[in-house]
Each structure stands twice: as structure tokens, then as C-alpha cells.
């Protein structure tokens, strides 16, 4: 290639830069579908649509497990005693401070709906176990209370809340 | 690739790597300073196009494999799932299916270029034979890929092609059962075709490395068929061949994109959108277009075993080209008779392709037989005799002289 004084830009310089720019845009455009195809596809997203759960059959004190978006959801019909335990705790002393009122829907204190995945490393905690009347995770010993909050053990956060609302007093829609 | 590389990297990091693994020097000597005849035309870009298409097929194939299910009950459905549900799945599928067609289109142009300019002659015999091996691997890969869709054509193509081996006397049936993994084409067949379809492209890649290595040892042929005699006859690969190939590859990709975005099913067969039915054979089974000439040759021979042998021979005979062509002169440019027989050969190949798509009756059978005779005669009779009887045109003294005239 012949050398050109840097003061003067030639047509060749323009062509090289233009080709390079279009090539870069093209390369990015090629990457988009290759990467996007790994995201959940339409059928997976459709399978993750909201579900309705009938609360009628759930007895006082009973915890049931449903699946939504492949995640286990605990639905806990809390007794008066369990609600009181959850509300009486000194919030500031909790590892992940959160009042019980922030974890239930107004007027529906007896219903606790949480995602049943331990916030430590992802095991499913066991119901009605542990020192706090909530859940006990057998993998590394995390213990949750009747509001699903972490009380002791390595888990950093309270059990997560899924998006849900009350379709009626005895039916919730999760998602 | 003889002697020490002239590559001297600037940065300290690159120097550190170069001393331990001289990849930079290899790329530099193979694709930057590598001398290339200055008179190459665009037909020489197809090698690069083929390498590019192999990359495209591997990449689109790997992402498609993330969604495809290789089971008879789910295969067809999973392909439709890719088309309808997977993000950009329709694009990936059409890229892969049409990519196969473009891959074969490019390989045929590449091979015809090799025959026209007699690139198979000494010292490029091994290069040519490696190419024939790549072509065979491509045919196997393409066939198995088409079966994976598990449509009507997929299933029946698998049945027909695997049944070819039953023509072998004695062990034929045992071989077919072994290929099937059962008493007919079924799930075991589909599963193993999936495994091999994923494997073979990487085998192709390995043979391509050998093919390019063999090429770089002897250097490219060129339209005059005369070897470069001095530095005046060649130019450095970069920027000349790089830019020229880049331009033509872009044009090729435009043609490819035309199929993918405007007529993605044009080269396919509608019957393959019907799920495989082992009880019903489609009225006209045809392979994909790139196998049609060989399909025509197979059906032209009335005997089962001889038909299969003719099919195999029609491909294997290519490997013997360096020895069948007895002429001392390379390049059809200086061989007027050879040129005419060559173009007749091209017409015959295209004609065989067309005949392969027709039902095997009446005039189509007669024509297929005539064309098949010419096909083999070209290799076994015409080429050997031309070397003895053809009066060739006078050769220029050098490549430069052919381009610049006597002033070179």
C-alpha cells in the first residue's frame, strides 16, 4: 500500500472506514438472534401464565405447595397463634428486617404466600420445622419463621414473595 | 510455509504469545503475506465462501440443537416449535436449511472451476482428492440433516438411501439392519443420524484444514494454468485477495439472504411439511436438489446393484481425475476441444439434475441413460483421449505476460 500524508484523507480511507463500520453493524446484527434464541421461547412464556389457586380446601395451619413458572410456591393458612408470633417480633432485630404486614395482603393476614426456595443456595425448605414454627432448610440449616423471614442460618434474605392478588376471598391468582 | 516467518509483532504481549505458540506468524504467513497469482478471477473466491458457509452451518446448527428433540414422537413438533416459538427460530431454521443449499451451490461452482482450469493436475492431486473427501462428507451430512426434520420426505429418503446397501450381495441385509438399528427406519435411526450429523461437520473442518494446508504448500492454480515464475506474477494475499474475496462473499451472502428472507421454501419440498408416516410413501420421492443428478444416474440403470455401483462410481471417479486427464496442458483457456466437452459436461450435469426431479418414465429415462453415458464417457474416454489428440493453443510465457502483454 502506498503511504499518504496524514493531512489528506483519501477515498480509500473513506472506503475502509465505511466498510469497517458497516461490517461492525453487521456483526452486531448477526449476534442478536444467536443470543436471543436462548431466552425463554413463546411456549415457555405461555406456560408461565398466571394460575388460580382455590384456598377453600386448605385447612387452618396447613401449608400447601403449588408450582408457578417452575418455582414452588408455599401457601400457608396461618392460625391465630402463628399470625401473632409473626407480628410480635422486634423487626429491627431480624437479619432481613421486614414487618409481617409487608408480607401479606391487607385484610388477609391468615394467608402467607411465598416462593419456597431458600435464599441461601436454592433448596426447598421443610414446612413446620425449625425453632421458629416456620420452615427449616436441611441443606445448610437456615430457619424461617411463620412469616417466611430468615431468623437463623446462612440465608441472607427472607423467602421471596411472588406477585399475587386475591381474585375473591377464597381464590388467589399467582402471577 | 517453508522457512522462518517474517512476522515481528509490535506489542510485548503478542511477542510473548508468539514465542510460545506462533499463531500470529501462521496467520501472517498464510493469509497476509502469502503470495497469490495476480490473475485470479472471482471463481477463486468460492473456497473462502465454502469455509464461511461451513462456519455458518456449524453455528446455526449448534443453536438449533439447543431446541431440537431427536425422538420420532417429538422431532417434527420440535422443528415447528423452533419455527413458531423460539426467538428468531424461524430465521435460524431457514438460515440452516438454505445454508445447506448455498453450501452445495458453492461447492459445485468450486468443483467445476477445478475441472475447467485443471486444478487437479500435478502437484495438486492430493488437494483435489481431499476435496472429493470433503464433498462425500458433505453429502452424508446433508442427507442426515434432512432426515432429522422427520417429515415425509425425511423418512422416505432415509428408507431409500439406507436400502441402497441391501444391493450388496450376501451381507447387504445385515448392513441395512445394522444401519437402521431395527427392522425399519425408526427411532434408533433418527438418534444415530443426529449424533453423526453433529459430528461430521467437525470432521469436515479437519479435512478442510488439510485441504488448505495442501493448497498453501503448492500454491493456487490460476486461469492460465502456468505456475508463477517470479514475484511479478503474484500479489500478497492481504489486501488484494482479502478485499476481493470480501466483496464477492458479500454478493454471495446477498443471494443467500434473498432465499432466506423472500423464498425460504423454494428449494425445499412441500411434502416435508407432512409428519413422517411409515405406512404411506409419497407418490414422487425426490431428494434435495443437490443430490438430483446422482439420483438420476441411480434410476437410469435398470439393475439394482449396478445402479448403486453407478451412483457410487459417479462420485468416486472424481478422485481419479488427475490420472484420467492425460493432457500436459492445464486450463481450458488453451484447450479448445476440452473446453467444448467441458461445457457439454456441465449441461449434462444440470440435465441429470432436472431429470432426477422427473418421474422415471418414458423420455426421461431415455435421456437419463444418454446423459449418464456421457457423464462416464467424459471421465473414462474423452479426457484420456484428449491428452493424446488435442491440439492445444500456445501458452503465454508467464502470468504477467498473459495479463500485461509482452511488455511484462
Task: Provide the CATH superfamily of the largest domain in chain B.
Answer: Cytochrome Bc1 Complex, Chain C
Q: Uncertain spans of chain B, ≥5 residues at pLDDT below 50?
A: none
Assign the CATH class of the largest domain in chain A: Mainly Beta
Mean pLDDT over the residues of chain B: 95
CATH architecture of the largest domain in chain B: Up-down Bundle
As a whole number of angstroms, the C-alpha radius of gyration of chain A is: 27 Å
How are the strands of the largest sheet of chain B arranged? 1-2
Assess the beta-strand content of chain B as a share of residues. Answer: under 5%
Quick one: how many beta strands of chain B?
2
N-end to C-end Cα span of chain A: 64 Å
In short:
Chain A is of the alpha+beta class and 175 residues long. In chain A, 23% of the residues lie in helices and 25% in strands.
Structural summary, described in words:
The complex is a heterodimer of chains A (175) and B (408). Chain A has three helices and ten strands; from the N terminus they run H-H-E-E-E-H-E-E-E-E-E-E-E. With 175 residues, chain A is α+β, with helices and mostly antiparallel strands. Chain A folds into two domains: 39 residues; 129 residues, Rieske [2Fe-2S] iron-sulphur domain (Rieske Iron-sulfur Protein). In chain A, the strands form three sheets. A four-stranded antiparallel sheet of chain A has the order 5-6-7-8. In chain A, a hairpin with a 4-residue loop joins strand 7 and strand 8. The model of chain A has no long low-confidence stretch (mean pLDDT 94). With 408 residues, chain B is an all-alpha fold. Chain B folds into two domains: 33 residues, no CATH class; 374 residues, Cytochrome Bc1 Complex, Chain C. Chain B is built from 16 helices and two strands. Chain B has a two-stranded antiparallel sheet. In chain B, helix 6 crosses helix 7. The mean pLDDT of chain B is 95. Chains A and B meet through helix 1 and helix 2 of A and helix 5 of B.
